[in-house]
Write a structure and sequence with these properties.
The complex is a heterodimer of chains A (about 120) and B (about 110). With about 120 residues, chain A is an all-beta fold. Chain A has strands at about 5, 10-15, 20-25, 30-35, 45-50, 55, 65-70, 75-80, 85-95, 105, 110-115. In chain A, strands 2, 4, 5, 6, 9, 10 and 11 form a 7-stranded mixed β-sheet that branches. Chain B has strands spanning about 5, 10-15, 20-25, 30-40, 45-50, 55, 60-65, 70-75, 85-95, 95-100, 105-110. In chain B, strands 2, 4, 5, 9, 10 and 11 form a 6-stranded mixed β-sheet that branches. Classes of the chains: A mainly beta (about 120), B mainly beta (about 110).
């Protein structure tokens, strides 16, 4: 069974540009989560999508946004990039939400570098 | 106070040693608990869920103490390949589902 996939693996942008990151969940999973992990720091929750709807978001500014498509894949958009947005962006998926006992499975991440 | 707290370590242990990590959480409404391991510059991988009755998977044992609001992970007979960062994860639903990751505990197992 294929795991969570993310693209691109690496992304280099300049300050002020926009970045788009993509995630495909495990087949059968409807929930997708996005996290930011800056170098040497813990995972910070960004966004949670389920059944095409944004269900929750972390303490990030509105320039971090995303969406979930009918096939449950998801996109994270970061507008007006700042240097401190440089981080590993991880996507995770889990079976249908509403059950907090479900584990999350992570993709390999997209490493975003803002110069 | 952080919602999920872990000792950052590092824990330096010889091969074959037994090592234990604790993790405390602040919200009594926390509902499910997990341990993940993360290797350097890689994604977190699920190690095990943690149940109230405690659970074991080979050399790994996880325990949950709801009264004291902590979970633990015990690794027996440490291997070099156990060297990683171990993340404590808590799920809760307080008007909205939320997942909180601890900052992790670093483990180095040496020959």
């Amino acid at each position: 069974e294929a795991g969570v996939t993310q693209s691109p693996t690496h992304l280099i942008k300049t300050r002020g540009q926009q970045a788009t990151l993509r995630c495909s969940p495990i087949s059968g999973h409807t929930s997708v989560y996005w996290y930011q992990q800056a170098l040497g720091l813990g995972l910070q929750f960004l966004l949670w999508y389920d059944e095409g709807e944004e269900r929750n978001r972390g303490n990030f500014p509105p320039r971090f946004s995303g969406r979930q498509f009918p096939n449950y894949s998801s996109e994270l958009n970061v507008n007006a990039l700042e240097l401190e947005d440089s981080a590993l962006y991880l996507c995770a998926s889990s079976p249908r939400s509403g059950m907090v006992s479900y584990e999350q499975y992570f993709g390999p991440g997209t490493r975003l570098t803002v110069t | 106070r952080k919602e999920v707290e872990q000792d950052p370590g590092p824990f330096n242990v010889p091969e074959g040693a037994t090592v234990a990590f604790n993790c405390t959480y602040s919200n009594s409404a926390s509902q499910s608990f997990f341990w993940y391991r993360q290797d350097c510059r890689k994604e977190p991988k699920l190690l095990m869920s943690v149940y109230s009755s405690g659970n074991e998977d080979g050399r790994f044992t996880a325990q949950l103490n709801r009264a004291s609001q902590y979970i633990s992970l015990l690794i027996r007979d440490s291997k070099l390949s156990d060297s990683a960062t171990y993340l404590c994860v808590v799920n809760l639903n307080t008007g909205g589902f939320k997942t909180i990751f601890g900052a992790g505990t670093r483990l180095f197992v040496k020959a």
